[in-house]
Amino acid sequence: MTITVKCFASLAGLQPENPEAFPIARGETVARVMKRLGIPEGGAALIFVNNVHRQPDTVLRDGDTLGFFPPIGGG
Q1: How far apart are CA 66 and CA 3, in angstroms?
Q2: Is residue 45 in a domain?
């Protein structure tokens, strides 16, 4: 099974080599993919699966698109 992974802004450096065919195991969660990519806990302020806001415990399915956005600071 594979998914598409998109890491935005300061997380772009953690984008996998082949982001359009990132392998996952059956039952794998967003949290597990974050760990595999090296995204620290709290390192993704927004998580989207197929353009819908989701939580780290979301189970992924073959063909999903997973996006990570970091916390944004500013003044």
Answers
A1: 7
A2: yes
pLDDT averages per 10-residue partition of the chain, 75 residues: 97 96 98 97 95 98 98 72
Give residue 34's domain range.
2-69
Cα 75 from Cα 71, distance rounded (Å): 13
Asked if residues 10 and 73 have their Cβ atoms less than 8 Å apart, the reply is no
Q: What is the CATH number of the domain that holds 15?
A: 3.10.20.30
Dihedral sign of CA atoms 62, 63, 64, 66 in order: positive
- What is the C-alpha separation between 52 and 68, in angstroms, rounded? 12
